[in-house]
Write a structure and sequence with these properties.
79 residues
Length: 79
């Protein structure tokens, strides 16, 4: 993938996979914690869909970690 956006989505999927391993979570548990449909999580991990900002935010909030490249904690950016 040559597009910068694709590299970001790959990094998000990698970070999500890492958190799944670290926290011992499966797709159903991630869906329950985040409110994101299990199939949407599976599609993100498979690279068959790109999450929108709301989905990414719900995943980060549900897991309690930043998934976007360079993110520290969800909610760490104050308006």
């Amino acid at each position: 993938m040559d597009q910068p956006q694709a590299r970001v989505v790959q990094a998000v999927a990698h970070a999500l996979t890492r958190q799944m391993t670290l926290q011992g979570l499966g797709l159903r548990r991630i869906a329950a914690l985040s409110g994101v449909n299990r199939q949407a999580v599976a599609n993100l991990l498979a690279g068959s869909s790109w999450p929108d900002v709301a989905t990414l935010s719900r995943l980060e909030d549900g897991l309690g970690v930043g998934l976007y490249p360079g993110a520290k904690d969800p909610g760490s950016m104050h308006c």
